Amino acid sequence: MDKKIGVYICTGCGIGEALDVEQLSNLAKSECHAALCRSHANLCGPEGSQLIKDDIANEGVNSLIIAACSQRVMYDVFDFEGTILDRVNFREQIAWTHPPKDEDTQMMAEDYLRMSGAKMSAMLPLEPFKPEQEMSTDILVIGGGVTGMTAALEAAKAGYNAVLVEQEADLGGFQKNVTKNVVFPFKDVQENEIAQLAASVKNNEKITVLTGSKVEKLAGGPCVFNATVKQNGTTSDHKIGAVVMAAGWKPYDPAKLDKRFGYGDSPNVVTNVQFEERAKAGKLTRPSDDRALKTVAFIQCAGQRDPKHLAYCSSICCFTALKQAIQVKQQDPKANVMVFYQEMRTPGQGEDFFRKAQSEGVIFVRAQAPEVLNVGGKLAVEAFDELLGDTILLDDVDLVVLATGMVPATAFGEDYKAKKPDDGEKKNEMVSSVDSIFISDILNLEYRQGPELPELKNGFPDSHFICFPYESRRTGIYPAGPVRRPMGVSNAIEDATGAAMKAIQCVELTSKGMAVHPRAGDQSYPEFFMQRCTQCKRCTEECPFGAINEDEKGNPLPQPTRCRRCGVCMGACPERIISFKNYSVAMIGDMIKSINVPDEYDEKPRILIFCCENDAMPALDMAGLRRMQYNSWVRVIPLRCLGSLNLVWIADSLSKGIDGIMLLGCRHGDNYQCHFIKGSELANIRLSKVSETLDRLALESDRVRFEEISITDYAKVPGLLDEFAEKLVEIGANPFKGF
Amino acid sequence: MSNRVDLNLIRELEEFGLKDAGKCYNCGNCTAICDLSTPENPFPRKMVRYVQLGQKELILKSPEPWLCYYCGDCSIRCPREADPGETMMVLRRYLTSLYDWTGFSKRFYTSEKFEELAVGVIGGLVGLGMIIWAIANWSGINWAHADVSSVWSTEGIEKADLAMAGILSFFLLTNLYRCVKLVMGDYIKKVPLRMYWEEVKYLLVQFATQKQFDGCKTKGNRQRWIAHLAIMTGYASIFLLVVVFINGLPFMGIDVLKFQRGWASMGGRAEISIFNPLRLIGYYSFFAIMYGTTYVIISRLKKTQPQFKNTHSTDWMFLILLQATAITGIFINLGHIFDWVFFTYAIYVIHMMVAIPMLVLEVPFAKWAHLAYRPVVLMLMKVKGKFIAQQEQAKEAVLAPEVAV
């Protein structure tokens, strides 16, 4: 396609007052190869956008450089089909943050226009990815409990076919063994309606129910998954679009509990799960002799919130204990029921259920370490009651119920890392922390990084709660229900609905050749120039989403529908053979080269900022919105993810004479906020290698700096930049200037 | 040693009128709002926790129920509507029953039937006794003029009064002793007698005025205190006249105080002068008791204030007997004034049938026992507080030189 570039400069929102637009127009024509350049006082208004539309229609303009506001706003107005678009942020990053009609401000605008020109010449029109196979929009649901059934039903209601795989002979999961449960509005115990749910799933013609079955192999990617399901000795293949994984949970093994809980010492010490079994069998009696229950003690947090056992709160056991206590009380109002808790956790309207238990006469004792004792052949519970400030002894106890917690089905099995044969290669220092993947025999993915979902924490395959609700780190696979995090029926239903929605979004976007969240709608995808590949495996190792498989020789086999288009592979590749049509190592290199670096005697140092588009750039925009002033020496290049930073850009910048480089990324490590999970961590690791490069060039390593910035840190940004600028003045100018 | 939990306690207390203590989640708003709660004796939250945890032993040792005058602020402020004020009231009933070694009190509180039967039986026996006595003395009865002492001799009534007072005092004082022992615990042996003696004045002031009651700053509390004071002073003064001075103090030769005089001794008149101070005190008593009891009865019927919302059967019994005593008492006086012979004698019997069960049951075993428990516990707390302060001072004095170095 022959590009005919049109440059449009908006003069509204203070841009016209801050900059010499006439001069910029001339520059656009002379340096950006623009066929035409127009300015308008309100480019985002109907008149302004009509101006652009007219040029597209009449002048044949097909490549647009729009120098106006941030790319984060007005994206719906500046959306012209069939064109290549680049936005230059004259408003937030220049007019609102720098003094008007100033020499430095004008130079900044000129540089941004040049950078955009360089970018424009490197960008190619997008062609959405179309796989060779036919794409499926069917949704595979693994697990036939409350979550799985709800997800299948919701997908079916939205018009999608669902395949429901359940390992047991009947649908229902854990809940099918529960007589009564507690759900919204949390006023009283309720009859369990699991049977009705199972019936409506079975009767739904859009849902294929496969009981007594399991997924033996899951290969491919979103819309081109091939699921091999084994049922009663026969296997069948299913073409799948996306997966909802509702594999559920298993109770924590009570035999592992501390001695003080007394489990195993008496048949009258049971777990909350065993209580459910007894309730189902209609035997709410003393287990040792089936006598009526007179005194029952519930002990909460049996092994939970204890780093030696389960480090987390299972969130449902308080509800369960309240429910079971009420069941005992409703069976015999004269029975004595005491609940020993560390903290009673009944969030939201669940508080009403706590009150319900109180009004039924259940007595609550806050105690950190209650102990089950044997007093004269009878059970007793001793605890330090914090409200009494003294130790109490409840003796003659007929039944002790221990609140053991939820362990996700994904937490079982050997760690893939440990099992992987050590191929004798020297461990690559550039590689980020490796995720734990337990071989839990649920998905059996044919993925190079491991057969199951990576854990976030404590064996739960969750993803970052804020950035990726309902998501995992494998595109198109959405864990839901207690396998994702501990939860009860009410939350599981909500979770299943959310996961079904995510799965639907996934198949819809993928079938149009688009990326899913967070770059939803992006039609670019990475392309590999395989002739130059050295089989170093860095791309296959480092892809945060395990999107790239490998052949036996170590060649990457990209699976674009699994890709989230972050560009981490592009940043990782030492041979720079991975690029997108509109984002590549060479393109950013050209942008760096287009910056006009004044020579040393002008005393105008230049600072290049590589900033993450998702967090750091919004922070810079926020600083602009607040009209905060910051250093005019900076030039910002937004990156899809800081993980796509290729080290060659640092070398490019320094040899160009840029005095300092700052990387602005998201928080990494525990509680990471990175949209692509490991991007900023990877950038930081790669940066540690930069000092060697700097030494080679005889440069000070202080010239390159990494900072973590989240959106809310916008107020810190100006100070950070000024401080860096001062430091650079101290170090002195880059000796490579003018080479 | 850990404190044994007796979860049956909460059900036992239900018989004493406990309702909502189980709802309490121990936030402590009740203790924070209470004007009378102190750091040394905080309540009501602590007491509610004792109830929830079935801590009978701890409740038994607690002075706190007697320090509460039930202004009801805690029950108004309680976010859980657990009615802590009523829990304190229940604990006062419960403690009264526990202090009583005869076990009579417990039955009286926990069984409405027993309560009615006890009042009925004692009233009946008193009536029967009075009639037998009258028949035995048939010939001496003055049928021409109303003269109660001609039927039941003043000396005889005096002896009976003394006997009754002796028995009542015996029960009340033995129960009170148990109360003191329990509340003081180990301190009872440590605190020197002199310290108790020093606080006798405080005891008497509290007994006579219930000054502590007025310490509640709640709106409307002053009226309750005045009504309470009216009942207390009214009853105490008429009690003195009718029981103690019925025959004057003949052994001391003082006749002026003699309350019940015969026709002959008054020179052919049925009643002493209306301006006689004894008569005036009598009228004060009647009006004070009537004012106080009517105020309480109306409040209990209206149930607008928390402390009047829950009325135990013993509360009604107490009020009815009290008012009936006052009314029959004033009728005796009217009978004498108008010289209605038979009416006077009959009402006298009825008066005795009401007043005696009231005294016999309520004073040692029920609500009226608080006349002894409250001021005594208040005094004990003062004594204990002073003793502990002294001990600490002594300790500091020993440590002080070291600090100075």
What does this structure look like?
The complex is a heterodimer of chains A (739) and B (405). Chain A folds into 5 domains: 1-125, Rossmann fold; 139-249 and 409-511, 3-Layer(bba) Sandwich (FAD/NAD(P)-binding domain), CATH 3.50.50; 253-404, FAD/NAD(P)-binding domain (3-Layer(bba) Sandwich); 527-579, 2-Layer Sandwich (Alpha-Beta Plaits); 583-739, Rossmann fold. In chain A, 28% of the residues lie in helices and 20% in strands. With 739 residues, chain A is of the alpha/beta class. Chain A is built from 19 helices and 32 strands. In chain A, helix 5 packs antiparallel against helix 15. With 405 residues, chain B is mainly α. Chain B starts with a strand and ends with a helix. The mean pLDDT of chain B is 90. The A-B interface holds A 295, 334, 336, 338, 355, 358-359, 361-365, 382, 385, 387-388, 390-395 and B 2-5, 7-8, 10-11, 22-23, 25-26, 49-50, 52-53, 55, 80.
Counted by DSSP, the helix tally of chain A is 19
Structural class of chain B: mainly alpha
- Cα(first) to Cα(last) distance of chain A is 35 Å
- The CATH C-level name of the largest domain in chain A is Alpha Beta
Helix-residue proportion of chain A: 25-40%
Number of helices of chain B: 19
Q: Please identify which CATH superfamily of the largest domain in chain A we are dealing with.
A: FAD/NAD(P)-binding domain
Number of strands of chain B: 1
- Based on CA atoms alone, the radius of gyration of chain A comes out at 31 Å
Q: Oligomer, anyone?
A: heterodimer
What Rg of chain B, in angstroms, do the CA atoms define?
Answer: 24 Å
Total count of strands of chain A: 32
Mean pLDDT of chain A: 92
CATH topology group of the largest domain in chain A: FAD/NAD(P)-binding domain
Domain tally of chain A: 5
Shape of chain A: elongated
Task: Please report which band the strand proportion of chain B falls in: under 5%, 5-15%, 15-25%, 25-35%, 35-45% or over 45%.
Answer: under 5%
| N- and C-termini, Cα separation of chain B | 40 Å
The helix content of chain B, as a percent range, equals 55-70%
